[in-house]
Amino acid sequence: MLIRGTKAVQLAKGIVLIFLVRIVAGFMQLHAVTWIVDQIVSWSVVGIIVIFQPEIRRGLERLGRMPLFGGRGNNAHDESIKFVKELDKAIQYMSKRRIGALITIQKETGLEDYIETGIKLDADVTGELLINIFIPNTPLHDGAVIIDRNHRIAVAAAYLPLSDNKMVPKRLGTRHRAAVGISEVTDAVTIVVSEETGGVTITRNGRFLLDMTRDEYMKYLTSEFVPKKEKNTKWYQKIFNKIWKWGAGR
């Protein structure tokens, strides 16, 4: 769900509670309470639109990427390949030099609550930038880098929840527990580079893949983030694109 892992979940619970109060008040003929709740509901529509604005925007973005509207097409394929290559560049550099790193990449679940704990960057993903962030004794090296679903670095030095899963080996440190922790509450993909061994670990959905080789993590990241290349444009996409271009040219 788009609102999972965000403050919007708590708001949704509050809305349900208000409607339950309205139903009970109407049934018991508590006219004063009913009037108050009706006023709250009538004014809350605008408030809901404002509060849920990030989720509404993401929903519209996803609608725009649907095949009917031409999607992101082959550009998305090429951009995603570049994204994975930049990740690989950073992972290889840091792994060889045993530079600890923690990189969380958003999938469907919102990460806004965790993004709020970090230092905003809103930058393109490049291997050089990721390396510089995690260089020891620099201001941003502690904490996690969070990459949003548009494959941009949202923040650095973010705090992630630590897992208390007893299946996590005791030899693993805080970065690994944070990686498992965020994977237990969201569907994000998290990459960890160990500063002790240089080993590469990936976590998702409460599971962790330890000490992956380059071929293994590249295969995993490619399967997660690189869409299949579209061979042919469907007939209805061609018609829609022609109408769109005609309208834009007027």
UniProtKB/TrEMBL annotation:
<keyword id="KW-0547">Nucleotide-binding</keyword>
<keyword id="KW-0812">Transmembrane</keyword>
<keyword id="KW-1133">Transmembrane helix</keyword>
<dbReference type="InterPro" id="IPR036888">
    <property type="entry name" value="DNA_integrity_DisA_N_sf"/>
</dbReference>
<dbReference type="InterPro" id="IPR014046">
    <property type="entry name" value="C-di-AMP_synthase"/>
</dbReference>
<protein>
    <recommendedName>
        <fullName>Diadenylate cyclase</fullName>
        <ecNumber>2.7.7.85</ecNumber>
    </recommendedName>
</protein>
<dbReference type="InterPro" id="IPR050338">
    <property type="entry name" value="DisA"/>
</dbReference>
<keyword id="KW-0067">ATP-binding</keyword>
<feature type="transmembrane region" description="Helical">
    <location>
        <begin position="12"/>
        <end position="30"/>
    </location>
</feature>
<dbReference type="GO" id="GO:0106408">
    <property type="term" value="F:diadenylate cyclase activity"/>
</dbReference>
<comment type="function">
    <text>Catalyzes the condensation of 2 ATP molecules into cyclic di-AMP (c-di-AMP), a second messenger used to regulate differing processes in different bacteria.</text>
</comment>
<dbReference type="Pfam" id="PF02457">
    <property type="entry name" value="DAC"/>
</dbReference>
<dbReference type="InterPro" id="IPR034701">
    <property type="entry name" value="CdaA"/>
</dbReference>
<keyword id="KW-1003">Cell membrane</keyword>
<comment type="similarity">
    <text>Belongs to the adenylate cyclase family. DacA/CdaA subfamily.</text>
</comment>
<comment type="subunit">
    <text>Probably a homodimer.</text>
</comment>
<keyword id="KW-0808">Transferase</keyword>
<dbReference type="GO" id="GO:0005886">
    <property type="term" value="C:plasma membrane"/>
</dbReference>
<dbReference type="GO" id="GO:0005524">
    <property type="term" value="F:ATP binding"/>
</dbReference>
<feature type="domain" description="DAC">
    <location>
        <begin position="53"/>
        <end position="214"/>
    </location>
</feature>
<keyword id="KW-0472">Membrane</keyword>
<dbReference type="GO" id="GO:0006171">
    <property type="term" value="P:cAMP biosynthetic process"/>
</dbReference>
<dbReference type="GO" id="GO:0004016">
    <property type="term" value="F:adenylate cyclase activity"/>
</dbReference>
<dbReference type="InterPro" id="IPR003390">
    <property type="entry name" value="DNA_integrity_scan_DisA_N"/>
</dbReference>
<keyword id="KW-0548">Nucleotidyltransferase</keyword>
